[in-house]
Amino acid sequence: MSKVVVFGHKNPDTDSICSSIVMANLQTKIRGEEVVPCRLGEINEETKYALDYFKAETPKLIEKVEEGQTVILVDHNEFTQTAEGIENAKIDTVVDHHRINNFHTAEPLSYYAQPVGCTSTLLYELYTLNNVEIEAKYAGLMLSAIISDTLLLKSPTTTEKDKKAVEELAKIAKIDVEKYGLDLLKAGTNLDKYTEKQLINLDAKIVENSGIRCMVAQVNTVNIPDVLKRKEKLEEVINQEIAEKELDLLVFAITDIVNSNSEAIVLGKRTDLVGKTFEIKNNIAVMPGVVSRKKQILPLIEKNM
Ligand code: MG
Ligand code: MG
Ligand code: MG
Q: For residue 220, what is the domain's CATH number?
């Protein structure tokens, strides 16, 4: 494929998918040539709700990138989270709201990053900076991404910029944020249709630091005990994942989006990385007030390393 492609991380969430579609639209307008949105995995139920609502097409599935392929990364930078072959691709631009880690390029690039709650908040700024008008459909997709990443502006990752973007985008998309937001988040809590293996990989990130490999997976729910009914089978599959992916720790966080709490199944030979902060009983750590992997779970694991 010779066209420029844009994609978010593996196990894509609503931000990775919506920001890819939106960035492709913005870049197509800026460059005057077609930029193609892609994805590195299946879309989840929440994302599907957003794409259906705003009548957006699902991005094309790719697994790897060709040598010399020009790519734009959104919502990630770490090579453990991206497409195969990235080492030999040409990374043209990154728009992201995560730490920079496991990342290097052979050539100079554009890199737009800020510690905000969502990539789409930055894309909203980029439309403004480039004087490109935002169509309602793309406003709706950005809005969906921000609602998803910030759990309707309730996550501790939320910034003033995210709030401002939501306010402006809601006007353009003509959306009642509270109503649409809850419907969107709830669409992502229907977990019954997934197998345990799918649940664990629905929204999972692998991080590697000082030789320690950890995977932190997260699902949203309105009823944690309901998900924990499957604990035994989940544990079995988590242990398989640990063996397959050579992990030292797997944290499977089940997040209650209404009450803003999490409980996590914690397994692997380095459960102490969580255990130093939260008591683990029967492989479960109760985490009151914890909803953010990026701002709460990952920092505590890394602090304990
Ligand atoms: Mg993401
Ligand atoms: Mg994001
Ligand atoms: Mg997320």
A: 3.10.310.20
Its pTM stands at 0.91
Cα-to-centroid distance, 8 and ligand 1 (Å): 7
Q: What is the pLDDT of residues 55-93, one digit of tens each?
A: 999 999 999 999 999 999 999 999 999 999 999 999 999
CA–centroid distance, 17 to ligand 1, in Å, is 9
Any idea what the Cα angle at residue 50 is, between residues 86 and 41, rounded to 5°?
Answer: 30
Task: Say how far apart CA 61 and CA 168 lie, in whole Å.
Answer: 31
Range of the domain at 246: 196-303
Ligand number nearest CA of 292 is: 3
- What is the whole-number distance in angstroms between the Cα of residue 46 and the centre of ligand 3? 11
Ligand 1 centre distance from Cα of residue 19 (Å): 10
> Separation of 146 CA from ligand 2 center, angstroms?
8
> pLDDT confidence of 1, banded at 50, 70, 90?
low
Sign of the dihedral defined by the CA atoms of residues 44, 48, 51, 53, in that order: negative
- Gap from CA of 204 to ligand 1 centroid (Å): 9
Mean pLDDT of the chain: 96
Q: How many whole angstroms from 30 Cα to the centroid of ligand 2?
A: 23
Do 281 and 218 fall within a single domain?
A: yes
- Same domain? For 167 and 201 the reply is no
Q: Considering 163, 187, 211, which residue would you say is the last residue of a domain?
A: 187
By CB atoms closer than 10 A (0-12, 13-18, 19+), residue 197 is middle
Average pLDDT over residues 207-224: 94
